[in-house]
Amino acid sequence: MTGTFDITINKIAKSRVAEYDVNNVPFGKCFSDHMFIAEYADGKWQKAHITPYGDTPLSYAMSALHYGQAIFEGMKAYKNDKGEVSLFRPIENFSRLNKSAIRMAMPEVPEEIFMGGLLELLRLDSAWVPSSDSGSLYIRPFIIATDEAIGVKASETYKFIIITCPAGKYYSEPIKVLVETNYFRAVHGGVGFVKAAGNYGRSLYPTKLAQQKGYQQVIWTDSETHQYVEESGTMNLMFVIGDTVLTPALSDTILSGITRDSVLTLAKDWGMKVEERKISIREVLTAHGNGTLKEAFGCGTAATIAQIIGIGFEGKDYDLPPVEERKFSTKVDEVLRSIRKGKVEDKFNWMMKI
Ligand code: PLP
Ligand code: COI
User: Fold this and answer.
1) Which CATH number fits the domain that encloses residue 247?
2) How buried is 79 (Cβ within 10 angstroms: 0-12 exposed, 13-18 middle, 19+ buried)?
3) Overall pTM surpassing 0.85 (yes/no)
4) What is the pLDDT of residue 5?
């Protein structure tokens, strides 16, 4: 029983955790023992249960598959030296999931179901949380439309599901990124500011083209002029130019990243100048040319801090300063990790013990 919402729990007969080295598994491929499922029908969330992770029968006609009524979140849990497990800023993910739900005409999930299900699941599967320095349990809450119907309309039934997987580094090396000026990720009035599944599907082809040219990711630019940088892959973008931390201002074409907010909070706390505004690729390359571009990185839950060491633009490659010289992002990375692993004071109350 969690809050006022009952969760039926059907535990796995024998944990599979011993089959894996949870501190050393590829990202997103090995799933923990249990999953949480809540079902929505007749205008309300009905029942919730935790069952062993596994396949579920679903209709090939279900609307999520055809019209993309599907949204998700990405969040992480960490284990400290005492073996205690904590979540990083889970309420932010809860709020953002519901923001996505509203935009996609899907039902919002009540906090007692989101947090109740999540905490119950993590308590059952805490052995799956890596204890290594860069390890964490990646948590994927998502909602899918399950109506068995081909007509284009908002579904009347949904499932809210949480699955989890131990995770190490998403990018093992610093990345080279290509500024994308033909395709775009998001448009004004669209869904770029939410985590709708279709945002990711549409990004794959431009990313594939960039990868064929030797880049790991793209930098998305604005759809109207292609002059202003927005995000990189599935990360928010940050630059240090001179002594200022710069990041594109939030808009309806940019996802409001929780890591982004955490980086900015730390920068301000350390007395750094922070600017959230439009940033043109020309400004970044001019700063590169005159030696004031000190750092460039992407930030996100899966990627944490991903150093950008090269930018490709209009057929030219620009090599960025070596990672060893990047004081700000190195410190941010270390401090975030220390907060998450319970090694320093959690000054901003970001961690929630399970
Ligand atoms: N931008 C996009 C498109 C993303 O998918 C993500 C990942 O969730 C981010 C930014 C970073 O957001 P967060 O730091 O909340 O993970
Ligand atoms: C995240 O950082 O959580 C993401 O959503 C990125 C990706 C794995 C989709």
Assistant:
1) 3.20.10.10
2) buried
3) yes
4) 78
